[in-house]
């Protein structure tokens, strides 16, 4: 491709709307343009990258036994009513009506469609197992579309659904997908980690997320420094050894006047009580009932764990006026002692002694409160977010934290959808049984952004070779010089004919501009044709991902190029 024809409108300025580096660079390098919040056009360079990611994903899905299909984006309301999700999905679902005022959704996911499809066609165990997948746009009206392609409202996903006779079959499908996902992220040359993920209030079902590691990631990953344990922060268990009792004598509880002191920090500053000697009380509505969560002052509530522990469907934070009416005090003065609501205590608090907390009277706190003696909670659970430094729940090692971007998610659904949509088959004994399902997603467009997030420098993107839009860019320093252009054209033709994907920057621009653009768009290797080297029939070759360069003779250039950048390529072809 000649750069003079390539549609890659680069920007000098960093667009002000972009916060994270992948968003900035994909805009600046002319890969994407925004249409509306979370909705983008993919320009030619981006399309090439996406195609390469899709190819790798397709190859691995096919190898694992998947068959590609393409299902409708427009999905009728009736199917979503059947599964119960027309109302549950809420505002995240894009809805529309046809001319007859019939309701439809733009597919945010395809369990309803595929389960109905498979149910209509599959009747016998002989037709199972089955794995069907598609690569297609998904639509989710996210509350906060942001970070460019990371959290779009229209985005590209690969979704595969497995159908089996029983749990044993599902486990095999799940293992195949797990392995296929590892192959995919290995082949994409991305640094990633597989973590245990939460699988919702019903529990018991297995789920893993694939996280590309990057500072800007929205997710926190906790992993053990000693064993293989890794989980996302929503799931990571907090392990508190049962035999560690408080090593303190219990002191008498006292009520103290604390005018104007409302936050944990206020008590640290004014009374010198450290955060880890305080207990905070947070109020929620759990399925219509007021619930207090009590935990150490420096910890964060994990609402997913809370929801699972309380087995509730709806959970949201209570508003202060309602709480004051029921409990007699505002947020800054609440505590578990004689509180007018159910009290759920984080397990760590059971190991604390002589802590301070609100006294359920404005401007008063208790000090030297002890669980069991001063209050008896309605439940004790693991309710906080794990943090770096916690003990590993598997081996007792120490957990460390990393930031990650969730690019893939695999999930054992069991019979959730087959029960709701009555998807059954007849087993070998002639009995009618629900199909056992799994679903497996990869964010294709998010993976592209994650690749940039992990591979960039101050000059621009550094594409991993397997997904680079082009592998080589040839830059004649001065496009007006006939000898340079001639050499550039010859090399371009030769490398292209051998299957390399090459850009020839034939634009009449200063060399500096061309070098800057080449670095910005992230082409992995650059061949520069300058006047001096050309006199000796040489060109300069530089890899985007390392410093330094080398001169090589034009004679036999393709063998030389293969020698320099070939090894990386050979794993991808
Ligand atoms: P998240 O927690 O980030 O919202 P999710 O759990 O809703 O993700 P899934 O429904 O499991 O995501 O979708 C499968 C994959 O699709 C995700 O792992 C992610 O890579 C991608 N994905 C989900 N939502 C978006 C989005 N709004 N924009 C881009 N990619 C997305
Ligand atoms: Mg989501």
Summarize the structure.
The chain is an alpha+beta fold and 573 residues long.
Structure overview:
The chain is an alpha+beta fold. The strands form eight sheets. Strands 3, 7, 8, 9, 10, 11, 12, 21 and 24 form a nine-stranded mixed sheet that branches. Strands 16-14-15-17-20 form a five-stranded mixed sheet. Adenosine-5'-triphosphate (ATP) binds at residues 109, 140, 142, 151-152, 155, 157, 406-409, 441, 443, 445-446.
Ordered list of secondary-structure elements with their pairings:
Elements: H1 21-28, E1 32-36, E2 39-42, H2 44-63, E3 67-68, E4 74-76, H3 77-83, H4 85-88, E5 94-97, E6 103-106, H5 111-121, E7 130-139, E8 154-164, H6 167-187, E9 192-196, E10 207-213, E11 219-224, E12 230-232, E13 254-257, H7 264-271, E14 279-286, E15 289-296, H8 303-310, E16 315-317, H9 320-327, E17 342-346, E18 355-358, E19 364-369, E20 379-381, E21 399-414, H10 416-420, E22 424-426, E23 432-434, E24 436-443, H11 444-454, E25 456-457, E26 460-461, E27 472-476, H12 482-497, E28 502-504, H13 511-521, E29 525-529, H14 531-535, E30 538-543, E31 549-553, H15 557-570
The site of adenosine-5'-triphosphate has 15 residues, from β8, β21, β24 and α11.
């Amino acid at each position: 491709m000649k750069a003079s024809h390539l549609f890659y409108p680069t920007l000098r300025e960093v667009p002000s709307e972009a916060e994270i580096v992948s968003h900035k660079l994909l805009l600046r390098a002319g890969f994407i343009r925004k249409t509306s919040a979370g909705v983008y056009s993919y320009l030619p360079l981006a399309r090439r990258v996406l195609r390469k990611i899709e190819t790798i994903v397709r190859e691995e899905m096919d190898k694992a036994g998947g068959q590609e299909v393409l299902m409708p984006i427009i999905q009728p309301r009736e199917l979503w009513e059947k599964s119960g999700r027309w109302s549950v999905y809420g505002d995240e679902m894009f809805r529309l009506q046809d001319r007859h005022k019939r309701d439809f959704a733009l597919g945010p996911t395809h369990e309803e469609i595929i389960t109905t499809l498979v149910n209509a066609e599959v009747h016998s165990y002989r037709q199972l197992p089955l794995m069907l997948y598609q690569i297609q746009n998904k639509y989710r009206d996210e509350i906060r579309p942001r970070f460019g392609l990371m959290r779009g409202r229209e985005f590209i996903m690969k979704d595969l659904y497995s159908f089996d006779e029983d749990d044993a079959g599902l486990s095999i499908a799940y293992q195949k997908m797990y392995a296929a996902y590892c192959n995919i992220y290995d082949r994409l040359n991305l640094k990633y980690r597989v973590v245990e993920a939460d699988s919702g209030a019903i529990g018991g079902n297995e789920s893993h997320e694939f996280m590309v590691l990057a500072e800007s990631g929205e997710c926190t990953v906790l992993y053990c420094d000693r064993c293989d344990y890794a989980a996302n922060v929503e799931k990571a268990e907090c392990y508190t050894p049962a035999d560690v009792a408080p090593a303190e004598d219990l002191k008498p509880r006292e009520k103290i006047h604390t005018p104007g002191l409302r936050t944990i920090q206020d008590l640290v500053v004014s009374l010198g009580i450290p955060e880890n000697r305080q207990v905070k009380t947070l109020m929620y509505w759990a399925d219509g009932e007021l619930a207090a969560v009590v935990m150490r002052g420096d910890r964060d509530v994990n609402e997913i764990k809370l929801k699972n522990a309380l087995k509730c469907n709806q959970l949201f934070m209570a508003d202060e006026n309602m709480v004051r009416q029921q409990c007699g005090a505002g947020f800054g003065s609440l505590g578990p002692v004689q509180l007018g609501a159910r009290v759920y205590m984080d397990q760590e608090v059971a190991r604390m002694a002589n802590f301070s907390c609100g006294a359920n009277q404005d401007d008063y706190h208790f000090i030297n409160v002890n669980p069991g003696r001063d209050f008896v909670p309605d439940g004790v659970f693991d309710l906080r977010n794990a943090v770096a430094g916690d003990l590993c729940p598997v081996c007792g090692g120490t957990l460390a934290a990393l930031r990650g971007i969730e690019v893939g998610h695999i999930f054992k659904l069991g019979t959730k959808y087959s029960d709701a949509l009555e998807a059954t088959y007849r087993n070998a004994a002639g009995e009618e049984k629900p199909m056992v399902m799994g679903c497996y997603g990869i964010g294709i467009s998010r993976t592209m952004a994650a690749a940039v997030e992990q591979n960039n420098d101050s000059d621009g993107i550094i594409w991993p070779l397997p997904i680079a839009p082009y592998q080589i860019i040839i830059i004649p320093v001065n496009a007006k010089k006939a000898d340079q252009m001639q050499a550039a054209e010859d090399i371009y033709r030769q490398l292209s004919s051998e299957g390399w994907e090459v850009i020839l920057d034939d634009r009449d621009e200063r060399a500096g501009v061309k070098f800057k653009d080449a670095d910005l768009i992230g082409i992995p290797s650059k061949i520069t044709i300058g006047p001096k080297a050309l006199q000796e029939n040489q060109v300069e070759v530089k890899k985007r991902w390392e410093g330094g360069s080398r001169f090589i003779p034009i004679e036999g250039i393709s063998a030389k190029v293969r020698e320099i950048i070939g090894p990386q390529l050979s794993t991808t072809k």
